[in-house]
Design a protein that fits this description.
By secondary structure, this protein is α+β, with helices and mostly antiparallel strands. It is 13% helix and 16% strand. The protein has a domain at 1-25. A two-stranded antiparallel ribbon has the order 1-2. The radius of gyration is 25 Å and the shape is elongated. The termini are far apart. This is HTH-like domain-containing protein.
């Protein structure tokens, strides 16, 4: 467009593209966290019905995924 003498801002260009449904959204990379189709045994919930009489009887944890040097790694919380 510059060669033809038209000058528009980036914001205007993206507005035109969005109005005409010409924008393509970038796909976010994500870690696959669940593989439900497997042969492994499903373990029962051991804390169901647990009676909490005092603090520190039960500790739980969770994991999350973070990107380190372009790859996913586990972070345990």
């Amino acid at each position: 467009m510059n060669q033809e003498g038209y000058r528009i801002s980036r914001k205007t260009l993206f507005s035109i593209l969005r109005t005409n449904s010409l924008l393509v959204r970038k796909r976010k990379k994500y870690a696959v966290t669940t593989a439900s189709r497997h042969w492994m045994k499903k373990h029962p919930n051991l804390i169901r019905g647990f009676d909490f009489e005092s603090p520190n009887l039960l500790w739980v944890s969770d994991i999350t995924y973070i990107k380190v040097k372009g790859e996913f790694a586990y972070l345990s919380l």
